[in-house]
Structure formats: C-alpha cells, structure tokens
Amino acid sequence: MNYSASKTTKSVKNGLVAMSFFVITIFIQFYSRKIFLVGLGADILGLNSTLVNMLEFLNLAELGVGTAIGFSLFKPLSLNDYQSVNEIVTFQGLLYRRIAILILVCAIVLSCFFPLIFEKSGLPLWYAYASFFTMLFSSMIGYFFNYRQVILSSSQQEYRIIYSYRLTQLIKIIFQMTAVYYSNFGYIWWVILEAVFVVISAVALHYVTQKAFPDLKTGVLSYKELSLKYGKLRTKIKQLFFHKIGSFALYQSSPLIIYAFISLNEVTLYMNYMLISAGILQLFNAIYNGVGAGVGNVVAQGDWNYSKTIFNEIFSLRFVSSWIVFVTFFMTAGSFVTFWIGADYILPMNTTILIGIILFLNLIRYTVDTYIQANGIYGDIYAPISEAVINLTLSISLGYLMGLNGILTGIIISQIAIVILWKPYYLLSKFPIFKFRRYILKLLSHFLMSIICTIPSLILYQLIDSHLYTTEFYRFITLTIILFTSLIVSNGLGFYITGSPFKNALFRLKSIRSLK
C-alpha cells in the first residue's frame, strides 16, 4: 500500500467509525435534552451552559498547547521517531500540570463571586457551586491524565478515542437521563454521575492509548531541558494563545452576554438551537475525521502542486455540503424544535437564519484552518485579538440595542472580517499555492452557483409545504427529506458539471476502495 493510499484509508476508517457513533450519539443527545428540560428545568440548563462558558474562559490558560503538540507530532510519527514523540508528549504533560494549577486557583477565586454573579438566577446558590466544581474536576482530569490522547489524533487513530472516551460519555448521559426521569433528586444524581464517569472515561482512554502506543513513556529530561530543546514549539504555543482568545470570544462569550442582557431562560432557548448546530458540526467532524492529519502529512511531503489540488478538492466539497446543510437548517429548524421540545422553545425565523449563517461560516472555514494547522502558521497573533475585540464590542453594543439578534450579528461581522477574509489571505501569504485574489473568486463563484442551484429547491419546498397537512413530526420529516434531497441533486449536478475540483473530489472518494 502506498503512502497516500494509507493516509486516505485511515481517514475513511476514522470517518466511518465516527459517523456510526455519531448517529447513536446525536439521537441520545437530543432525547436527553428533552428529558433534562422537563426534569431539571430551563433555568438549570441555562445555569450549566453559563458555567461551562465561564470554565472555558479559565481554560484560556491552556494556551493552545494541545493544538501545537498535535502539529509537532506529525513529523516524528511519520518517521517513527518515538524518542521525540515521548519527549514532546512529556513536555505537554509538564506544561499541563502548571496550567492546571493556575486554572484551579483562578476557579476558586471566581467562585467567590458566585453570590453576586447569580443573584438574579432564582436558583439555590449551591446548584452553581455543585455544577461548577464538578466541571472543574473533569477539566483537571483532562490536564493531568487525558492529555495523551493527542497522539491518537495525530496518528489518525481517532476511532480509538471514540471507542473509549466518547463511548463512556455516552453511557454517562444514559444514566443521567434515567436518574433525572425516575428520581426525585435528579439534579443531585446528575452531578454525582458526572463526577463518577469522569474517572471511568479517563481510565478507558488511558488503557487504549497505552495499548496503541506501549512505548509511550514519560521522558527523563526535565521541563527546563525540554523547553530549551523544543523552543520552536514554545513559540507556537504562545502564538496559539492569542488564537484561543479569538475562539473564546466567538464560541463561549455569547451565552454570558445573553445572560447579562436577557435571562437564563433565553440562554436555554439559544443553546437548544446551538445544540442542533453543534450536532451538525459533529456530523461534519465525523465525515472529515482524520483529514486534518492527512493534510498535515501531505504538507510535510513538500509537494505544493499536490497540496493545491487537495486544497481545492476539500474546499469545493466542504462548501457544497455546508451550503446544503445551511439551507436545510434555517428552513426546517423551527419544525424540528416544535416536535422535539415544544413550540414554546422556537426562536423567530430571522434569529434562526442568523444562527444558520454562523453555522455556515464555521463549516466553510475548515479547509483554511486545516492548512494553517498543517503548516503550523500561527504568527498572526493580532488577528484573533482583533476578532475578539470586534466580536465583543459589536455583540455587546448591538445586543444592548437589538437583543439576541444583535449579539448574533456581531458574531457574523467578526467572522467575515477575520475568518473568511483575513485568515485565507494570511495562509496564502505564507503558503502561496495560489493568489488570494483567486481564492476570493473561488469563494464568490461557489456562493453564486449555490444560490442559483438552490432556487428550484426552495420553490419545490414552498409548493409542497402549502399543500401538506399532517402532524408536526411527519411534516418535518417529509419536508426535510424533500428539501435535502433536492438540494443534493441540484447543487451536486451544478457543481459536478461546472467545477472540476468538486468532480475530482467525488472521484477520489469513489476510488478509496481500490486504494485499500
């Protein structure tokens, strides 16, 4: 088996395992959300979402170590240089211990202000403390024990993480669902099970990592010696810290701002839609699982023409599939929420469209982000700072004037400015496989073609919707299948006929069996 075939096959294996697991996971996640809403209440779920985002803020101290380590492992793993692998992972562990202590201290200080922060929540204060310190315990386990999973991701063995860590997390949700549904002390059991399964997951992950890499051991070099030896890695970590700030401002600050301007109940409504959005992102991660490591190895070969070919194929395939999901999302999300948890939890259509746009931008950014990570290009530290400033400034000011829609608009503007425009420019200035102007033309041509191909599908959707009289569940199923299928046909044919990268990507997927 040639090198390229091996990487492609591993990507497909990761994708198939992740996809199979995703189908089970997404069903349980949505079903559990309904049970938790009924058994725990919207305010408690909103409280937990807010606490998660607070903890993510503290996790900024992680400095992007995991991402930098993953990038640094590509080359030694491809060369079977396990001495370097051991040293890099040991360096990661030593860094994480220092970070964990810092986060623990900051978390304790932050918890002292909970009486002030959650004064208007209307919930007993011990709820906030119980949830927060359980989540903190989970975070500490990750820093002290689970960090070694990075070697599984970098070696394209993500499926082992699914078999161990994610499977136990799934079992945890089932137990929590059962406890909340049948017990009068559902919240207490929820907290206890959360803590117990943190330990079980860590043990399972440690076992599969050790089995896959029995020679993975703690190195004998000290932190100071490793820090000097891997000075370039330290530089990447420092650069990634700023990128983590931008990521936090985008993904974690919104529930905090919504809580500040509106209420915990509104946080829950928003998070219901974000759960759908997260499910779609998980689906795409499952489909594209392992591609990042594969691209890392392609870049490591130094063949720029091949890198350009792969970039164009991934970009085109990802854009078309992202557009199809975006249109399906904003047209059918309301119907889904109605039969899932009830009409009281529906957001207005304009808000749904804004959430859909954010989802779409997150999906199409994948190709550029993958190549940035594969090349280890993180020097644009001012970009994530600018993104965070733009996002927070606009979200707060527009949120004050327009409520939730203003907050979402601020996110969209910051993403377009930095993620859609700046990041491709920066990547192509450092890794010039083609000019930035050509990338913009590629982006606009895909966008225009998608709109043209989508018009017939929307006309068909409206025509059938106006003559469909049935229950909300069957209405959602019928319209989703019709819309999704027609979008695949119209967009697929349009790009297949006019776009060679999209066509080549399909041929590459079709040839995977022969590569095996």
Give the ordered list of helices and strands.
Answer: HHHHHHHHHHHHHHHHHHHHHHH
Which range best describes the helical content: under 10%, 10-25%, 25-40%, 40-55%, 55-70% or over 70%?
A: over 70%
What's the overall average pLDDT, rounded? 83
Q: Give the uncertain stretches in residue-range form.
A: 1-5
Number of helices in the DSSP assignment: 23
Strand content: under 5%
What is the structural class? mainly alpha
General form:
globular
**Spatial extent as radius of gyration:** 23 Å
Oligomer: single chain
Largest sheet: number of strands, sense, barrel closure: none
Distance between the termini: 7 Å
Count the beta strands: 0
Structure description:
This protein has 516 residues and is mainly α. Helices cover 84% and strands 0% of the residues. The protein has 23 helices and no strands. The longest helix is centred in the N-terminal third of the chain and has 37 residues. The chain is globular.
Record keyword descriptors for this entry.
516 residues; 23 helices; globular
What topology does this entry show?
Layout: H1 3-39, H2 42-58, H3 65-78, H4 82-111, H5 114-117, H6 125-144, H7 150-154, H8 158-182, H9 186-212, H10 223-229, H11 231-251, H12 253-261, H13 264-287, H14 291-301, H15 304-340, H16 349-364, H17 366-375, H18 382-402, H19 404-430, H20 436-465, H21 472-498, H22 500-510, H23 512-515
